[in-house]
Amino acid sequence: MFLRDRMIVQLLAMLADLGWYPAPIGDAIDQAACGELLDSDEAAFVGGRRASTVARWAQVAEDEGAPIAIKVGTSWLFVANRLLGYIERTSNLYARREAETRHRKLIERRASSQRSTSDASQRAASSGGPCDYADSKPAPDPDHPIPGASAAE
Q: Which of the pair, 92 or 139, is modelled with greater confidence?
């Protein structure tokens, strides 16, 4: 078993040297790295309003049954796409486009601040970005097959 694990580590290191990295899984950590999870201040920047206003939006959306954020302690954690959809729904498409521009600026600001200290940004640059979810599927794991997936896949 030890030899197998060592070989896997060596193969992954060789693939990394060639510029290949596994696709992100799309969990909360990947979403946070991509700028998809926003705290109240970041959501306020994206929405162009105060943090108290976007917190009120989150409460209203939750009461309507279409949550855009989750309350963690006394703070809200926003999902960017849901926030943008809420802005479009309650304002208009133009307001959403403005918010999308601010969201891109926020992501760029995050990336530039992390670039000097993070190895992940170097990997992201060489692999197409940490948020490149299009056409990405999890790698098949023979020990843990996906429920409902056929064995032929």
A: 92
